[in-house]
C-alpha cells in the first residue's frame, strides 16, 4: 500500500492541493481553512465597508435617480457580505472573527482615499470595487470549487457597468472634471496596489495565494500586480481617461 501523501504545510501548497481533482475535502486541512478564512475575512469587511460607503455617498447624489442607483449598489454589497458570512459559518468561523485582522488596514485605506465630492465618490466606487474584484478573481483559480463559486457570485454584479456609464455621462461635457477624475483615479489605484501588497505582507496565509500560479508554482509579485494595473488602465480607457 502506498504511504499517505504528506499534508500541505504552507498556504501555496494547500491551495495547489485543493485545486487538484483528487482532493475530496480540502477543508480537512487546517492550513487551507486558515487562509480561506483570511481571504473571506478581507472580502467580507471590504463588502461591509462598501455598503457603508455607498449608503453614505447616496445622500449627496445630484438626482433622485442617482441616489436610488447607489442605494441599490449598497444593498448588493451587503448581500455579498451576508453570503460570505454564511459561508464562514459553515466552516465554524464567525464573520466577525474573520474580518477583525483587516479592519484597521481597510479603514486606514478609506481614510486616505476620502472623496472630496460626489463625483470622486463615484470614481472611487468604480476604481476600487473593480480592482477588488480583479484581486479576488486572480486568487480564486487556486481555491476549491465551492469557494470559487462564492467569489464568482460576488464578482457577478452589474455595478461596474452602471458606474462606468454614469461617469462617462458626467465626464463627457466637462473637461475640467475629466482631468480631475483622471488624477483621482491614478491616486486610487496607487493606494489600492499598496493596500494589496500590505495584505500579502501582513497575512502570511494570503501571501501563498497572491503569488501562486494556476498549477501551484509561484509567480513573480510584479506579474500579479502588473495584471491588476493593466485591467485598471482598460477601465480608465473605457471612460476616455488616461490611467
From TrEMBL:
Any one Pfam family match given in the protein's UniProt record, by short name: MiaE_2
Q: Where is the Ferritin-like domain?
A: 31-211
Region of interest (Disordered), residue spans:
1-23
InterPro entries named in the record: Ferritin-like (IPR012347), Ferritin-like_SF (IPR009078), Ferritin_actino (IPR059125)
Q: What highest taxon heads this organism's lineage?
A: Bacteria
Question: SUPFAM superfamilies annotated for this entry?
Answer: Ferritin-like
User: What is the official name of this protein in its record?
Assistant: Ferritin-like domain-containing protein
Q: From which organism does this entry originate?
A: Arthrobacter echini
Amino acid at each position: 500500500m502506498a504511504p499517505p501523501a504528506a499534508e500541505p504545510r504552507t498556504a501555496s501548497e494547500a491551495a495547489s492541493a485543493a485545486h487538484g481533482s483528487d482532493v475530496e475535502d480540502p477543508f480537512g486541512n487546517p492550513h487551507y481553512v486558515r487562509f480561506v478564512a483570511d481571504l473571506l475575512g478581507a472580502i467580507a469587511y471590504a463588502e461591509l465597508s462598501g455598503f457603508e460607503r455607498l449608503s453614505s455617498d447616496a445622500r449627496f447624489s445630484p438626482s433622485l435617480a442617482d441616489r436610488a442607483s447607489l442605494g441599490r449598489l449598497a444593498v448588493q454589497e451587503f448581500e455579498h457580505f451576508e453570503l460570505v458570512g454564511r459561508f464562514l459559518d459553515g466552516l465554524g468561523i464567525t464573520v466577525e472573527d474573520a474580518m477583525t485582522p483587516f479592519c484597521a488596514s481597510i479603514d486606514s485605506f478609506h481614510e486616505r482615499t476620502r472623496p472630496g465630492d460626489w463625483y470622486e465618490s463615484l470614481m472611487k466606487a468604480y476604481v476600487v470595487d473593480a480592482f477588488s474584484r480583479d484581486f479576488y478573481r486572480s486568487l480564486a483559480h487556486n481555491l476549491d470549487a465551492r469557494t470559487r463559486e462564492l467569489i464568482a457570485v460576488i464578482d457577478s454584479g452589474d455595478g461596474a457597468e452602471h458606474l462606468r456609464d454614469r461617469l462617462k455621462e458626467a465626464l463627457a461635457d466637462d473637461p475640467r472634471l475629466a482631468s480631475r477624475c483622471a488624477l483621482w483615479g491614478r491616486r486610487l489605484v496607487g493606494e489600492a496596489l499598496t493596500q494589496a501588497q500590505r495584505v500579502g505582507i501582513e497575512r502570511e496565509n494570503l501571501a501563498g495565494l497572491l503569488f501562486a500560479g494556476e498549477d501551484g508554482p509561484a509567480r513573480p509579485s510584479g506579474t500579479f500586480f502588473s495584471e491588476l494595473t493593466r485591467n485598471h488602465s482598460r477601465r480608465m480607457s473605457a471612460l476616455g481617461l488616461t490611467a
